[in-house]
Amino acid sequence: MGYSDPSSSRDLLGNRTLFFIFICTFAVVTLLQQILYGRNYLKRVKQTELFDRWKSLQMCKWEMNVTEANLFKSTLSRCCNAPAFLFTTQKNTPLGTKLKYEVDTSGIFHINQEIFRMFPKDMPYYRSQFKKCAVVGNGGILKNSRCGREIDSADFVFRCNLPPVSEKYIGDVGVKTDVVTVNPSIITERFHKLQKWRKPFYDVLQVYENASVLLPAFYNTRNTDVSIRVKYVLDDFQSQQAVYYFHPQYLINVSRYWLAQGVRAKRISTGLILVTAALELCEEVHLYGFWAFPMNPSGIFITHHYYDNVKPRPGFHAMPSEIFNFLHMHSKGILRVHTGTCSCC
């Protein structure tokens, strides 16, 4: 309880300001303790306790901490350097390069004239080019969030693995897309490696209008042919959509960085890769659809994706560790994680 002045009906300590400062500070400190010192937190403490801390933190208005954000961006610049190495380009991968794969390290891909011409001359984006970016995951936390307009209001929007953005979902997830990733396994399973009918795949990409398409062509040897084929398909249909390929060394460097932060997985998620890149390419980064638990912070069960409840292969990603790092960065003002409903515009 605060001390009040009966004559003014105001809180002598600033109209409850100090109370909320205390609540926010307590929430930040306890959440940071759980994240920084509790790598095995979920094994030791109920998820509900983490959710309670997160809900307490949501009482506070989020503000970007420019100092913390710039320090973090500086670290990423030294380890990863997305503005120079996010994509393979003619500058960073010259003609004749013997490109090493990310995973199949014994494999070498020789960059010939045909492949070299597919690469952009240089990276199309530069450091802190965009004021506000939205990185949109596919988590069920987005369902009924009404975040679509807020997402679409961002200057630049990243999406993962051809998510549905039809009228059914637009209110929650928006439709604006500047970069959309495509996992080659999707092309293999849904589109027969583009070896038969290609128009269904082309039609799916048109939903994202002029968004650039980004693929891990050099993750392993199996990914290369089908990823290159995407460029041929779009050229055949005279599409204006650009096709880019992750630089394998960038992916290696990003994985090493997050491993040092406690993310131990066979492979980090596409979402984490995009968030890492966005932190270098954007001044302010907002995350939507990122949540690693079967319940939302209020304890209500949610589907795995906003569009279905198909679970991923167990043990491949380390989603709780990734989310812990996101919450850590949120609490320090480096980026903002959205897990509730939005009230944009």
What spatial order of strands do you see in the largest sheet? Answer: 9-8-7-6-5-10-11
Principal-axes geometry comes out as: globular
Total helix count?
14
Low-confidence stretches: 1-23, 32-45
Order of helices and strands: EEHHHHHEEHEHEHEHHEHEHHEHE
Mean pLDDT: 87
- Note the quaternary state here: single chain
Proportion of helical residues: 40-55%
Largest sheet: 7 strands, parallel
Give me the secondary-structure topology.
Blueprint: E1 4-5, E2 10-11, H1 17-37, H2 41-44, H3 47-58, H4 66-79, H5 82-85, E3 98-100, E4 108-110, H6 113-118, E5 130-136, H7 148-152, E6 156-159, H8 170-173, E7 179-181, H9 184-191, H10 199-206, E8 212-215, H11 221-236, E9 243-245, H12 248-260, H13 270-281, E10 282-288, H14 319-331, E11 336-338
Parallel strand pairs: 5-6, 5-10, 6-7, 7-8, 8-9, 10-11
Antiparallel strand pairs: 1-2, 3-4
Helix pairs in contact: 1-3, 1-14
Structure commentary:
This protein is an alpha/beta fold. It is 41% helix and 12% strand. It has 14 helices and eleven strands. It has helices at residues 17-37, 41-44, 47-58, 66-79, 82-85, 113-118, 148-152, 170-173, 184-191, 199-206, 221-236, 248-260, 270-281, 319-331; strands spanning 4-5, 10-11, 98-100, 108-110, 130-136, 156-159, 179-181, 212-215, 243-245, 282-288, 336-338. The strands form three sheets. It has a seven-stranded parallel beta sheet, with helices on both faces. Strands 1-2 form a two-stranded antiparallel ribbon. A two-stranded antiparallel sheet has the order 3-4. Strand 3 and strand 4 (108-110) form a beta hairpin. Helix 1 (17-37) packs antiparallel against helix 3 and helix 1 (17-37) packs antiparallel against helix 14. Residues 1-23 and 32-45 have low confidence and may be disordered.
